[in-house]
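Researcher: Here's a chain I'd like modeled. Treat it as a single chain, no partners, no ligands.
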Amino acid sequence: MRVSDAMTTSPIAVPEQTQVRDALAMLETLEIRHLPVTDAKGMLVGLVSERDLHSFHAPRAELAGDWAEEARVKLGQRVSQIMITRPIVVEDDAPLSAAVDTLLREKVSAVPVVHNGKLVGIVSYVDLLEILAKRALP
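Model: Modeled as a single isolated chain. Structure tokens:
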């Protein structure tokens, strides 16, 4: 089995100039945890995860202090300013075991899937568990 057999195809991605506030809204609205960042040619240039955006969520009122002004500035930034550059990836034609090994080794829950550098999918632990459930569990 290959990565292409397990990945989510046509993943939701954003261009580099997307504002952080828009990326955060997409993650929350679409209930996804990873947002690949692509250039104009569809080449993967970065990744923004839900974890990366935790600092943009409002703290408890008693801890807020100057948070509001700082958050306003941060939310207006482009994702290119906060994204993970050179994210860990797997090739679409790699064996599925390569994706499993990558997730385990890097302790991440998903990795973008590329073909010659172009984003073609994303594979997550949920995708792998679905395969396991279909094939190995009664």
